[in-house]
Structure formats: C-alpha cells, structure tokens
Amino acid sequence: MxxxxxxxxxxxxxxFIAVTMITYVIFYVIPADPxxxxxxxxxxxxxxxxxxxxxxxxxxxxYQYGLFLKRLVIDRxxxxxxxxxRPVNSMIGEAAPVTASLVIGGAILWMILxxxxxxLSALRPRSLLDRMAMVFVLIGISMPVVWIxxxxxxxIGFKWGVLPNAGYCDVxxxxxxxxxxxxxxxxxxxxxxxxxxxxxxxxxxxRMIRSNVMDTLGEDxxxxxxxxxxxxxxxxxxxxxxxxxxxxxxxxxxxxxxxxGGAVFTEYxxxxxxxxxxxxxxxFNFDLPTIMGVVVFxxxxxxIFNLFVDILYAFIDPRIRLx
Amino acid sequence: xxxxxMVDAARASSxxxxxxxxxxxxxxxTDDGVVGAVDGVSFTVQPGKTLGIVGESGCxxxxxxLTIMGLYPKTxxxxxxxxxxxxxxxxxxxxxxxxxxxxxxxxxxxxPMTSLNPVHRIGDQLVEAVVLHKDVTHSQARGRALxxxxxxxxxxxxxxxxxxxxxxxxxxxxRVMIAMALINNPSVLIADEPTTALxxxxxxxxxxxxxxxxxxxxxxxxxxxxxxxxxxxxxxDIVVMYAGRVVEYGGVDELFERPQHPYTWxxxxxxxxxxxxxxxxxxxxxxxxxxxxxxxxxxFNTRCPYAFGRCRQxxxxxxxxxxxNEHLQACFxxxxxxxxxxxxxxxxxxx
Amino acid sequence: MQKRLWFSITAALIGTGLIVAASATxxxxxxxxxxxxxxxxxxxxxxxxxxxxxxxxxxxxxxSWEMQYATACKLMNYPDKEAPEGGEVQxxxxxxxxxxxxxxxxxxxxxxxxxxxxxxQAVTAANFKMAIDRLAQPKLASxxxxxxSDIIVGMQDVxxxxxxxxxGVTASGSKLTIHLTHAAPDLLARLATPPFQAITxxxxxxxxxxxxxxxxxxxxxxxxxxxxNRSITLKxxxxxxxxxxxxxxxxxxxxxxxxxxxxQDVVKGTTDYAxxxxxxxxxxSIAKTYGINKQQFFIRPELExxxxxxxxxxxxxxxxxxxxxKAVNYAVDRHAYLAQRGFLAGAxxxxxxxxxxxxxxxxxxxxxxxxxxSASSATVSKAKSLANGHTGDGKAExxxxxxxxxxLQAQVVQFDLKQIGVDVSIKLLPRAQQFVTARNxxxxxxxxxxxxxxxDYNDPYDFINILLDGTTIAPTANNNDxxxxxxxxxxxxxxxxxxxxxxxxxxxxxxxxxxxxxEDPPWAPMFNRLERVFVSAHFGCFVYNPVEEVxxxxxxxx
Lengths: 323, 351, 558
Fold this sequence. Notes:
The structure holds three protein chains of three kinds. By secondary structure, chain A is an all-alpha fold. Chain A has helices spanning 2-29, 34-39, 45-54, 61-73, 88-123, 128-142, 145-159, 183-217, 220-227, 232-244, 246-270, 275-284, 288-316, 318-321. Chain A has a domain at 101-275: Orthogonal Bundle (MetI-like fold), CATH 1.10.3720.10. Chain C starts with a helix and ends with a strand. Chain C is globular, with a radius of gyration of 26 Å. Chain C has two domains: 31-237 and 535-557, D-Maltodextrin-Binding Protein, domain 2 (3-Layer(aba) Sandwich), CATH 3.40.190.10; 304-531, Dipeptide-binding Protein, Domain 3 (Dipeptide-binding Protein, domain 3, Roll). In chain C, strand 8 and strand 9 form a beta hairpin. Chains in contact: A-B, A-C.
C-alpha cells in the first residue's frame, strides 16, 4: 500500500513538471513579447528594455523556467501579474473558493439528482419513468453547457427575474463595496450556475448509475442476500448500492477534476470571479505569470484529487486494499 | 391418473413430507414468447433425508427451487403448490417468505466466488443472517457466527471472521456459505450445484461436511446437480429432470440398480469411472430442446436412441415401474427392453 | 423501498421549491428597494473586466481614466461639457494660463487656492511636483512616464536612477515651474492627463509597483474602496468646493459580469451605465427601442481612427509608390469595411485626424476633395488606372487580428484590392501578438496592417508626430506602423509641434493631414469609431466629454 502511494506521488511530481514546462514553452513559441505589452503602446525602446528587465524577461527561457520553479517550490510564490502586478497567489486565492463553490456545489447537486433517478430507472427498466429518464439523459448530454447557461440566465434570471441573473456573493466577509453577501445571497446566486454546470453530469451519471445498479442486481451475492431473507430495502442499501456506487466514487473524483474546465463557460456567463474566468482573461492579456499560476494550481488540484480518490477507493473496496 | 397423483400414491406410505411440491409450473415471458422452464414438477422431501435433483443445464432444476423460495422474477407465471409443513409457499406473503428464507429453508448456490458480497466481512455477513431472523445482540450473533464457522471446519475461525471473501479459497468460501445457510438451523437446505465449481478433493470434503451436518442436525437436503456421482454418495431419493419435467423418480439404490428411463441410462453411461479403460465417454447425443417450443410427444424423443412412433405423438406419463410403486418413470418402452438396457448400462458401469 | 424513495424525492423537491420561492421574494424585495441614499443617490456602473490600476501614476486603461476624470484635480483640465468646448483644455487648479518663456522652454503656473484633498489637506504647488516625481520613480516602473519623460528636464535621470527628484520641476509656495528640454506646446494637453494630478505626500512616498488602490484626491470624488476584480467605490469629496459638478453621493463600479448581463442590468435599471459597453450585436435593437441620442442610448465620436497602414519601408510594396497608395484609397470599400463592426459602430473618414482634434468638427470628418468614402465602379476604375504598372509582383500580405471583425474586414480589403490587380494574402494573428510584432521593424513583414489608434491626449502631435514621424523609426517599439518616412513632412510636423496651441497650430496640422493624404498617403484611413453609450432610465445629466468620455462627475440620478 505504501509503495503504491509513493509510486503515485513520484508520478504526480513528474506530471507536474511536464505540464508546467509545456505551458511555459508554448508561451514562448508564440512570439509576442510581454514586455512590450506591459510597457504600453507609446513606450519607447528604452522603456521597453526597462520593463523587460523589471519583469525578468531578459534571461534565457530555461533560466527563467528554473527561476520560476525555484520560486514556486521554495518560496511558494507564483510571481506577479504582468497586467496589474498583483501577486498571483492572491489572485488565485480569491478565485479558487469561487470555483470550488461552483464545482463542489454542482457535484452535490448532480449526485442528488442522478442517484435516485438512476436507481429507480434500474429498478423499473422500460417503465415510463425509465424511458423519461433516458430521454432526459440524451437531452442533457446533447445540450451544450453554454447554451443551457445562456437560456437559463436569460429566461429565469432576466425575463422572469425569479433568480439573480448573474454575480457572486461571498458567504462570509463580503468585500467592501459588495452589494450582497452572506449564505442566503450566495446560495441564490449559485442556483442557476449549479444547474447549468450539473445538467451534463447529471445525465452522464444517471446513465452510469442505472447500468451499474442493473448489473449489480444480477449479481449472485444479491441473490444470496435475498435467500437469507433480507427485506428489499436492506438488499438495496447494504448489498446493491454499496457495490454499485463504488465505481461512481472514482468517476466522481475524476470528473470533479475535469469539471474545472467546464466551469469556465459557467463562470463567464454568470460573472463568477473564479479560476476559469481568470484563466481566460489572463490568456487574452498574455499575462504569463497568471497563466502559469492557474495552470500550476489546477494541475496540483487535479493531481491531488486523483491521488485522494485512488487512496479512497483502496479504503472502500477491500479487494484493492489488501493486494 | 395425473403425474401428481402418481407421486401422491408413491409417497403415501412414507409419512409426513416436510416439503411437498405439487405440479409446479413456472413460465417466463420472453421477447420470443412464453418459455415453460418448469412444466409440471412434483416431488417430496422427507425430514432429515436428502433428495437429489439431477439433469442437464437448462432442465429447470434450479428454477424449480428458486420458485419454491419465491426468488423468481415478478413477471413469471407460477402455478401449483409448494407445501412446506402444509403451508403453500407460492401463496405466502412476501413477509412470510422472508421469514422462511434463511431460517426454515436455506439455500446455497453454485459459485462461492460470487455468492458472497466482496465488500463486507465474512463475520458481518454471517451476523446478518442471524439478526435478520433472531432478536439477539450483535455479540450474541457474532458468537453464533463463530460457532457456525467452527462447525463447518474453518481453521482459526475467530480471526477469520474479520476477513473478506477474497481472502478465502473456493472451498473455504463454500464452507462459509454452508455455515451461513445452517446458522439458523433450517429444516431444509437447498444446495444448487454446491460442488460444481470446486475441484474433486474439495468436492469430497464439502459433501462429507454436508452429510455430517445432516446427521447432527437432521436437516433435510435438496441437492441439485448434474453429476450423478455426487448424488450417488449422499442422496436418499433422486428426481431426474429433463426439459422442465420429471422423467424418473425413485430411491437412490433402486434407481441405480434398475434405471428405467433412456435419459437416466445416458446419464449413467456418461459417468467416468476409475479403473476402467474407456476410450471415450458415452455422451447423450444432441442438445436439450428449446423450452419455447418443446418437441411434440415425449420431450426426449429427439435424442433418444430408442424412440419409436408413439414417442413422437404421445406424451408419456409418470408410471410406477416394475413392481415398485415408489419408483416412477415416464417412458413408453416395454419392461423387458428397459430391463435389458438397464443391465447393459450397469455392466459397463461395473466393469 | 420504492415508496420511501418517492416520498424522499417529493419532500426534497418541495423543500427546494420552498427555498427558491423564499429567495425569489427576497430577490424581488431587494431590487425594489432603492440604493441607500445620501441625498443624491448612488450611480451604479458595470465593467466586464477590471481596470489595470486605480493608482494615478500607473493606470492607463480607458474606463479607469474616465473615473480619474471624476477624482482628479489637475493644473489643466477639460470642461464638463460636450464637444467642441469640452475638447479645449482649460486651466483648473492653475489660476490661469501659465507664463511661458520666450524660448518656450519654461512654464510657470500659479496655483489657485481653495482646492482640498478628500482628507482635508490643501492643494499646493508641491503636490503637483510630487506627482511628477512619483511618475518618474523607477521603482514604480510606470508605463505612462513617457507622457513627460521626453520633454521635462531631469525626468529621464530619475527614471534611470541617477537622481531622486525631477530637477526640471520646482515648487515654491503657490508657484510651480516646469523646465522643458525643448519647446513643446502640447505640454498643456499632457498636463491634463491623470498622471499629472495633484497627489498627497502620503501617496508620493509610496511607490508600490503594484499600485495604491485608495488614496485621497482633490477632485469632486475620491477612491473610497477597491476590491480587485470585484468592485470600486468612489465617494463624494466632502472638501471639494470647486466649480465642477458633482451630481451623486457615490459611484459604485461593479466588475465581472458578461456584456450580455450588463445589458440586462441596464434594462432592468439596477445598473445605470455600461462602462465598457454591452454585446455589440445588441446596439441595433437598443437603438430601435430607445432611439438615438434621446434618453438612454447615445452616440459620440471617439478621438480615434481605424486605418490600414501601408508599409512604406524600403523593400516593401508601398515604398516610393504613391500611386499605389492612392489607388488603395480609391479602391477600398469603406462602407463594407465599417459594416462588419455592426450597427452605428463608426463614421467613415478619409483623413488622418479625427473630429474633435485640432479644431476639427464632425462636418470636417471627410476631406471634401479627398478620397471618396463610397466605393463605386467609378472609384474602382480610377483606382485601377492609378494602380496600373505599380502593383509590383501583384502580391501583398495583410495582417489582421484573428478575432472579432478582423478576419471579416481583411476579407473586404482582399476583395477590393483584387479589383486593382493586387492579390492580398491574409495573415491572422492574435491582436496582442499582431500589435507587438508590427512594432518590430525587422519582423513587420506586412504590406498592409490592420490598425487602430486612439488619442492619449487631445493634441494632433499625438496623432501625426507619434504615428508618422520618420525620424523616430527604431528597431522596436514603433508606433509608426506604416514606417512612413517622408523628409519633407518630417520637417513640417516637427515645425508644427512647436506652434503654441490655438488656431495656427490647428491649421498647420490640418494642412499636414491634407497634404500627406494627397501626395503619398501613409494609410487608407477607414473610419472613426463611435462611442455607443447605453445608460439606464435613472441616469440623468448625461454629458459626454470628447476627451474624457462619459462625465461621471456631472451625472445625476433621476
């Protein structure tokens, strides 16, 4: 078990270096000089040279990458944005909780929706409920996230005004000048983003849970449990679901990590100041430190999350634990 | 007289049946039509005795027992009776059935590898079997579980209670299944191909275990198998099934000494025996028939080397054979041919 | 089991429904309640993306300068009026126009008393010197230092770390003296930009390169709060006694919503002003619903020009090839080119200077005997005859941004020039990359460059000298993306730069504009952008200053 964890950790480090290096290199293959951008368009050559030196861009690429790594690992500092010179650590620190709200809340929502629908469909295959669920799955997988978001935002947020059309409210400590704050505001503002974000995954998970449950229902140990005289609810919870949901746990871990990407659209449409929006803005601005910061942070999150899920799986599935 | 009446008459002398199956039919709806998996099966199980049910795969032997336990899909059509101590299980409420299952009638299945829940500890699964039926504390149930593990001969039972199924070998797992089945002292144990998935040595051990437990606790056993060798060892009575029906029914000695049905001869002939030089095992040619559209007349006629005209037109009934009212068989062949063929088969067997 | 699950689901749905309903009423209530009021209310604006800084010596972003117009007090400033008066720089904290030495290199300002910072401190000449010193701080590394570093004595020394304070600026009592390295009459226009506003000593002693977010200022408003990427709050300066208007008690800038949402918010009235615009495709329907220049939708020309830079560098197609440059000006379909930007996006032009600059008004936007702004078969044949024999190898490369209207407009040009025998191949690049590479002389391999330029300050120097002076061409950082180097015009524009602001300066630049276009056009000027402003029904006292754009100080709530 320990060897397994250590191996995974080493692999995680390798992946981390590879991803950051590739991002750094890609940025330099595009011949746009951030110093000129930062210096402003009326800057003269002397100004540009000064800015270039100030930003540390006059060293060779490998040297800069080395500096970056050193600063990251030893000082745990991601540098400063080219656009507004704010520490990237702060920018990510502000954006990460927003994205976390969206992704984790969305995940909870999609699990709350998908589990009962998936289980019921599996218990009554080909019933009306099952067929409706499958139609929903098809639609949910086919509708683009952007379209769902825009439609919900326009109809429910704007036309009917039932829910806020956009914006983010901090749960605690709203910043000065914010016009909303607190858990209730936060929740209200997140309902539409959560729904937008979750529909696709709800559809996928309904289908997956349904097929897992159907498979598990046919397993021999379920028959054994019934033969022992267990009542149906107990058969369902202790035997069927306990086994059917195992692969769902791993999928959930991986999907939450991948979902960070999908969050970009949702954050943009609903004006949520999260990592996705930060990534997009910094790309448009050629803001290398922020781009790298977002990449580094996201990579770390995904790696840690996957590692966590792998270890968790070893705990809940005894067959893996003791190999 | 109907088959049922035959059976009744045959058993009338043997005293109160513990489990009395009467004209059981289980039909399934499939996309292609209605399949008669069990088509008029009757037999009885005496207390403390072992009944062997033999037949090929697909002959309906498993379905018969699942039907009795009420473990058939809701879409199946079921008729007939399964009287357990006079109570018709087929008409019992789900609640009553759950009380019976695991406590008064227990069932173990073929594949011990998959019959245990891989994510729960063995001890917990045994405890579950107890607390489902008895109002005891967890530690009391655990004590009972430990007892059961010891009874089936699992070494270091106390430590192994906390192990998971994948930490046991196949044979051990089957022992655990037996322990789980017998933990509440049921009167009937239905064992569906319990040794098929095990190697010969383990098979022998399991059979010996079951015989011992029967002796100690007086449990009636219904042993479902396709292997006559297994049945010969431990059964008191044998039911031979083919294509959803009973084709021969009698005491084990009687049946082995005087088999009366071509199918039974085929089964006996295909038994491998130690000490004989046999070039090829005798097979019964052909495949079991489709139960969607069973053959007209005797269901075995398409594979029977002895089939003649009548076999293809009429359905033979269960009749007493030879002198014995307790030995029933369903075949149109005359007595003498039967006796001759029977002798032939046995000669080959003995040699 | 199934039954129980159903009950649970129903219960959950009911519960969720209740929560939504409760929130809905709460939300409805919230929007019904007006913003907390001091007497004049809060003006609410929205930005799609955050400003770069609120720090006066660092910020360079247009919406930010719009806010600075409300908070800054400067030696010279633009009056809170529409064009044309709004475009003429006037003394504000200066008691009057400065005394200028004969050689035009020394300016002496007298500071009017009575201006106070929002913390109560009085504004003196020293506060203006502090601004210039801070602007030159190398630690601050400001990108707007260029606004003074080329003309103010000693400023470059501070930038280079050789001095602590700008020697050419002295403050004593109420007198501020500025020494220039050479005569530069556009100094007054430069002094009207935000970096030169009066700052307190506390801000002056803080050259944090990340910028200071909130600080006392001496205009009608001051920056009271800023949360980067979320919001900015401006509050009324309680000590402001000057003549400028101040219509609301506070200005709240909310940052982050998409342009679609900003549109919705203005329609609903929860936001009063879409500060960096709404989705461009919506303007047509906005104009239809609200009319143009009536209540909520306003069109104003920007000090800006969209043009095609014709690369005059040696070795390129347009080098020493005036006929072809003229032919291009005849051939391009300005209408089709502009149309790609959408409804009311701009007004066609055929000259270099935009209206509002150098004394030009809207009617001067099109040179009367200049190139026709409507393409027709006549213009095309004229173009063909001009181009005949001058098309080189018949091939040209055009650079354009790869997003937005760039590709579309490039295709229009490609089509138009095909008529005169020039095959244009289009190279699409991300705007940032295109911008940066075009300014690098060796890398600028285009013949035609999609370009746009907006004024930093309202003086034709910022358009003609900065963009077309051949003597300033360098290996990198060129704003002259036409690499135009005409000796005669170089001399003329240097001369014109020395003329004092006024009618003759304007006339000199207007003539330059006309003559360059007539003799050897450096560009094909296409159109001047129109600022399209969408405000809510509550936005009153709308004033658009041609240089500073929407006047937040003048705004009031109705």
